[in-house]
Amino acid sequence: MLNGSNLELQRVNGRRLWIGSTAEVIPATPPSLAATGLTPGTGYFIYAYMNSGTMTLEASTTAPALNATFGHQVKTGDDTRSLVGWAQPITGPAWVNSEAQRQVASYFNRRDLSLRNNFTANRTTSSSTYVEINTEIRCTFFSWGDDAVVCSLTGTTSINASNGTTGSAVSLDGSSSFGASGDNQVGLGVARIDKAVVVPAPSQGLHYLTLIGRAVDPATATFTGGTAGAENVCTLSANVKG
Predict the structure, then answer these.
(1) Which pLDDT tens digit goes with each residue over 16-67?
(2) pTM of the full predicted structure?
(3) Comma-separated ranges of CATH 2.60.120.40 domains in the chain
(4) Yes or no: domain 113-241 corresponds to CATH 2.60.40.1910
(5) Between the N and C ends of the chain, which has fewer C-beta atoms within 10 Å?
(6) DSSP calls for the chain
């Protein structure tokens, strides 16, 4: 997990971790790892290993593999390093684990983590097919490939044609969509967006959720932006494991 500016391997429901062929004790003072020297925008698997008797963390781009003898995930080609997490630094470099950027994920003892982002200003589209409205609402997260994502989309939208309608949905990585439907405009009135969808477990890797929408009829649809937490502001929320 992220504690301050460093990753830490903390004890949860026990104090031992299988490394090599031994159940090693995780120290009461957790092993930690800074982002120093790492490349922003690159994903790293985090491994624990024993360095002269001291449990130590390592960031590596080498993917994990199953240890056939003991059944745990290890660094491919090196059974002395056990998988404990994944993280991707941002410019700095620095680790980030915010509501809009869940770019730190534990492999063991995964917690419920919230995702949340919103439009800060009104965003528009004249597309009659679903498109991403604006990238600022994106929520990034890492998936281990075995946990579904529960999402919600709220806010308001309007259109500038009396016989037009808008549509909205949640998209994973801008390619697949969930909960696509019309937003029930009445004439030039404002429509409420209130959707809950489940995204099946994404493949292992970094993903993003975003709001996609459309304007039906030759028209322009407006998706409300503004202060975070305001009832009418288009907001994307989700729950992930990490």
Answers:
(1) 999 999 999 999 999 999 999 999 999 999 999 999 999 999 999 999 999 9
(2) 0.92
(3) 113-241
(4) no
(5) N
(6) -EETTEEE----S-SEEEETTEEEEPPSS--EE--TTPPTT--EEEEEEEETTEEEEEEESSPEEE-TTT--EEETTEEEEEEEEEE--BTTTB--B-SSEE-EEESSSPPEEEEEEE-SS-EEE--SS-EE--GGG-EEEEE-SS--EEEEEEEEEEESSTT-EEEEEEEETTTEEEEEEE----TT--EEEEEEEEE--PPSEEEEEEEEEEEESS--EEE---STT-TTS-EEEEEEE-
